[in-house]
Specification:
By secondary structure, this protein is α/β, with parallel strands linked by helices. The protein folds into 4 domains: 210 residues, Rossmann fold (3-Layer(aba) Sandwich); 130 residues, no CATH class; 151 residues, no CATH class; 35 residues, no CATH class. It has 19 helices and 15 strands. The strands form 3 sheets. Strands 2-1-4-5-6-7 form a 6-stranded antiparallel beta sheet, with helices on one face. A 6-stranded mixed beta sheet has the order 8-12-13-3-14-15. A hairpin with a 2-residue loop joins strand 14 and strand 15. The longest helix is centred in the middle third of the chain and has 46 residues.
């Protein structure tokens, strides 16, 4: 239930606060006073498009804030708990619209997205105005209205789950059949690729090893030159380093025979000598092993080029090539079992289709039962609103031939449309062919009254519900609104005193020029002020004592 609405800097509203009550809340006032702006503010909190044009002149931003009591709305409470936005019985929605066009949305003080606001809003408030008329006129929505009335949404959800599973199987079968049709060509390609990779006998690290070998073979002459020169310097040349180092060893030995205190040991010298000698032998053997082999170099180039071709074809690395080999092997195994899989899924589709058809028929039967009840209930409501000759029908078009499961849609096997005849002798016509706005307004209200006990939405807003009606019909509409308010909080904007007198709470919307600015105001009327407003609505500009007495009588009768 909407308990409080705060609006700031929106259109001609500077700042106002409205505290709503349960039951029927009436908003009245002269044309242009700002009633539609209040409905627009509520619409913003339900996720409607926000325009910077809504921001009051000279203000930087507009703010709309609403407090809801959600103690009885389990679905809203569940959504809030899942989103981590509170677990209490109160819900605070806030939307800020800046002049630059930027929007900020808050749910219980936490930043939120427009999608989150919309999903919550549709569970909190239903605005029944021109848009609601359009929803009712659109035949695509009639099946949803019927299923909601007949409490069939859970059964439809079961059907939908079966339907989506069945469609997924059909899609999978189509993919498998496509693969099967391409099987021979695909299998031939895969076998060729597998054979190519297997024959290549690639090994992890092979390319790096070949690159190292190529670098060595390509520099054989330099390696021979460097190693020979190093060997000669150490060992082979006249006056080599080892020859001279041997003389140093001998000299130090002689020194130590005379002066043992020399801080150089014989072992250290001999270790250096033998290490260098070992290095010279390694260099000697290395020179012997160096070969310049143009044929081997060419073979390495050919192999590297071949490996590069495989990398470009199957991946950037040898690891990718070997991984692709495993994938090909797995796909070939899958192709081998493709026929078996197609047979298995085809059988599942046949079985699922049988179950789906049964569920669709069950849903259709239940719909037809609900349609009969809806017809009688709607007609009772419409007849009580001075449309005594009106006939209402729910017409079905079966979209499938017997056993043709493929023609089902996510809502089942039925096409549903509401038909109406408002006068004796007139043929039944689709609802969207109704010309009279007054008739349509009463039909929308009748629908709302009938569906009042089927939804969880706490607040229903009626805007322009009095379009095209008056007199006794208006009084009956007021009674119906009062009935709806027993199940839902109702906020109703009206110009008709016959409707306004049924309100539990009555607000007057007015506007006043202060300085050079127009400002809309909303005031809760006392009993005396309410009598004044009903009198004004009855008489227009000139109010007489007689009209006041009439207004007083209307209020008394509405309470009875």
């Amino acid at each position: 239930m909407l308990t409080e609405l705060n609006i700031k800097n929106l259109a001609i509203i500077d700042e106002l606060n409205i505290t709503f009550t349960g039951g029927l809340n009436i908003l009245s006032g002269e044309t242009g006073a700002g009633k539609s702006i209040i409905i627009g503010a509520v619409s913003l909190l339900l996720g409607d498009r926000a325009s910077s044009d809504l921001v009051r002149s000279s203000a930087e931003s507009a703010v709309v804030e609403a407090l809801f009591d959600v103690s009885g709305n389990e679905e809203v409470r569940k959504k809030l708990e899942e989103a981590g936005m509170g677990e209490g019985d109160e819900l605070l929605l806030k939307r800020v619209v800046s002049r630059e066009g930027r929007n900020k949305i808050y749910i219980n003080g936490s930043s939120a997205t427009l999608g989150m606001l919309t999903s919550l809003g549709e569970l909190l408030v239903n605005i029944c105005g021109q848009r609601e008329h359009q929803v009712l006129l659109d035949a695509d929505n009639h099946i949803d209205i019927l299923d909601t009335f007949g409490a069939l949404m859970s059964l439809r959800a079961e059907f939908y789950d079966l339907y989506t599973d069945w469609q997924a199987l059909k899609k999978k079968l189509g993919e498998l059949e496509t693969r099967n049709n391409e099987k021979l060509q695909r299998e031939e390609l895969l076998k060729f690729q597998l054979d190519e990779i297997e024959k290549s006998d690639v090994k992890i690290g092979e390319d790096l090893a070949l690159q190292d070998e190529k670098r060595i073979l390509g520099n054989a002459q330099k390696l021979d030159e460097y190693a020979t020169r190093a060997h000669d310097t150490l060992y082979a040349a006249e006056g080599s380093l080892l020859e001279r180092l041997g003389g140093v060893v001998d000299d130090i030995k002689e020194i130590r025979t005379i002066d043992p205190g020399l801080k150089v040991s014989k072992e250290e010298l001999e270790s250096v000598f033998f290490n260098l000698e070992e290095i010279s032998f390694v260099l000697r053997d290395y020179v012997k092993e160096i070969t310049f082999d143009p044929a081997r170099l060419e073979a390495i180039d050919d192999r590297l080029e071949y490996l590069g071709k495989l990398k470009r074809k199957y991946g950037g690395t040898i690891e990718d090539i070997l991984r692709r080999k495993e994938e090909i092997t797995g796909e070939l195994e899958g192709i081998a079992y493709l026929g078996e899989e197609i047979s298995r899924i085809s059988e599942e589709i046949d079985q699922g289709g049988t179950v789906l058809l049964g569920k669709a028929r069950d849903l259709s039967t239940r719909r037809r039962e609900a349609a009969g009840v809806l017809k009688g209930t709607i007609e009772d409501e419409i007849h009580s609103m001075r449309m005594a000759d009106t006939v209402f029908e729910v017409r079905f078009a079966n979209r499938i031939k017997e056993g043709d499961v493929s023609s089902l849609n996510p809502k089942g096997m039925d096409e549903v449309e509401f038909y109406l005849s408002t006068n004796v002798g007139e043929e039944m016509m689709p609802l969207n062919r109704i010309a009279s706005g007054g008739e349509l307004s009463r039909i929308v209200l009748a629908m709302k009254k009938v569906l009042a006990g089927t939804g969880e939405v706490g607040t229903v807003v009626f805007d322009e519900v009095d379009s095209g009606i008056g007199g006794a019909a208006a009084e009956v509409v007021g009674e119906k609104l009062k009935d709806v308010s027993k199940h839902h909080q109702v906020v109703c904007i009206t110009h008709l005193p016959q409707i306004a007198c049924f309100g539990d709470t009555h607000f007057l919307v007015s506007k006043k020029v202060q300085g050079e600015r127009t400002n809309a105001r909303v005031g809760l009327l006392s009993e005396e002020e309410r009598l004044d407003e009903i009198t004004r609505m009855l008489s227009g500009v000139e109010m007489t004592e007689k009209t006041r007495q009439h207004a007083s009588e209307m209020l008394k009768m509405s309470r009875r």
